[in-house]
Write a structure and sequence with these properties.
alpha/beta; about 15% strand
């Protein structure tokens, strides 16, 4: 984590030296802008010092929003300035072979564009997502499950940024869809149970005939894993940790399996094991696997999984940067992928980690999946 703070600090320093210093603004304005960016750049460090973890900024919501905007400004200015410098080098050394000065006003335009994008991105990340409906065809799906509707929620990251009113609105919107099953594919929370107890209570009101199934994401392992797993049960949610259940419609069957997260190996807890999760499952029943991270999807396909539902990537968060996020997740970042006889759906997420709560061109999802017989 120390390396993370250093990298962010160096990025901020680059923005200050190559961009802010050369703005055609009054000295006081440049100093004020620089101070705000420095404060925003290290908000993860402040959370770590104040609350013991960079993953849980327990500051009041307006402060969390403000530092995310400042962090977003640094993010966008970093890429704007890199492009500006690279184009300048290209013109100077390759095309014109002489020193070129860009328009003075261009840096101001870049600054305000970064501020606008950061404000828009944070606002988009905080809104309750629109409903996304999609059909998924599964080979040999039993007739009893043709038209079966499930809602996938993922990466709720219930925190100071997504408090009880937001959670209650998501729950009401989900229940209004009248799904047969609700699945939550990890990262429900950011914070220890006493801090989030009131905020997660609306999840108790989620309703579906076949119940609510959840699995742990990597963030559950940061905040009292056992406490949260027990509490999810008290919220009428069934947690699948390398296990499965079999749903029945008459004589027709459908297996829902769930695994732990890859983060488990750092906490001396059971690692994700698809084979174990499927032990004893009916041979002829299609399998839907819940796995928070998509990067191991290719290992699940030979084990007879028909559809894997994942999250974790937040869809890449900012359009055109999704390829970078995909590189870190086995090549998967958003949407549907065919892997042999298996389909993988990577959900953009219902919310966002409050440490980088920005969405531009990558909307959050409240996803309804209707199963169709293939």
């Amino acid at each position: 984590m120390f390396l993370f703070h250093v990298v962010v600090g160096l990025a901020c320093l680059y923005v200050l030296l190559r961009h802010v210093r050369h703005l055609a603004w009054p000295r006081w304005a440049k100093i004020a802008f620089a101070v705000l960016l420095v404060i925003g750049s290290q908000h993860h460090l402040y959370a770590r010092i104040a609350f013991g973890s960079m993953f849980v900024p327990e500051f009041p919501q307006p402060i969390v929003v403000a530092v995310n905007v400042a962090f977003g400004v640094i993010f966008f200015l970093l890429w704007f300035q890199l492009a500006y410098d690279l184009i300048g080098l290209l013109l100077r050394w390759v095309i014109l072979r002489r020193k070129v000065h860009g328009p003075v006003v261009l840096r101001t335009v870049m600054s305000f564009a970064a501020i606008a994008l950061a404000c828009f991105g944070v606002a988009q990340s905080m809104r309750v997502p629109d409903v996304k409906e999609m059909d998924v065809t599964i080979r040999d799906l039993p007739d009893g499950f043709d038209g079966y509707r499930l809602v996938q929620l993922t990466d709720l990251h219930i925190s100071k940024l997504y408090e009880r009113p937001w959670v209650a609105e998501v729950v009401a919107k989900t229940n209004a869809l009248e799904p047969d099953l609700i699945v939550i594919t990890g990262d429900l929370i950011d914070g220890e149970l006493p801090l989030r107890y009131d905020d997660v209570q609306p999840l108790h009101e989620l309703k579906a005939p076949d119940g609510v199934i959840t699995i742990p994401g990597n963030h559950e392992y940061y905040f009292g894993y056992e406490n949260w797993m027990n509490h999810y049960g008290g919220l009428n949610m069934l947690t699948l940790e390398n296990a499965h259940i079999v749903l029945e419609r008459g004589r027709d069957q459908l297996t829902i399996a769930g695994v732990t997260d890859l983060r488990a190996d750092r906490t001396n807890r059971p690692e994700p094991d698809v084979a174990k999760a499927l032990e004893g499952s009916p041979e002829n029943a299609p399998v839907i696997l819940l796995d928070h991270q998509p990067k191991m999807a290719r290992d699940a396909e030979p084990l007879g999984v028909d559809l894997q539902l994942s999250g974790h990537t937040h869809g890449g968060m900012v359009a055109i940067f999704d390829n970078i996020v995909a590189l870190l997740n086995g090549g998967f970042v958003s949407g549907m992928y065919d892997i042999g006889d298996m389909q993988l759906y990577v959900n953009n997420g219902t919310a966002q980690w409050p440490g980088f709560a920005i969405r531009v061109g990558v909307p959050a999802e409240l996803t309804v999946i209707t199963l169709r017989k293939g």
